[in-house]
Specification:
mainly alpha, 3 helices, about 0% strand, CCB3/YggT, transmembrane
């Protein structure tokens, strides 16, 4: 069980950092058009898109949907660990 919990935490951390890097890349010109930017876009944008539809940008400038999406990654990971704990024991 401890191994499964560790892998869930590791995957949640990796996806959190992918979202973070993708958001930080938006501050630098032409970085999203690079190979890494396009790869991250393919992995992160489908997850961020529903949050962007629900949460409008604040003042038309500041997008807080990546923050909510990152929080939901951790909440889902924690929920998975609770469910797995319930069935393993």
């Amino acid at each position: 069980m401890n191994d499964i919990s560790h892998y869930i935490d590791m995957l949640a951390d990796i996806y959190f950092y992918m979202i973070l890097i993708y958001v930080l890349m938006s501050w630098l010109p032409n970085v999203r058009e690079s190979f890494v930017g396009e790869m991250l876009g393919r992995l992160v944008e489908p997850y961020l898109r529903p949050f962007r539809r629900i949460i409008p940008p604040i003042g038309g400038i500041m997008d807080i949907s990546p923050i909510v999406a990152s929080l939901s990654v951790y909440l889902v990971a924690r929920g998975l660990k609770v469910v797995i704990d319930a069935f393993v024991q």
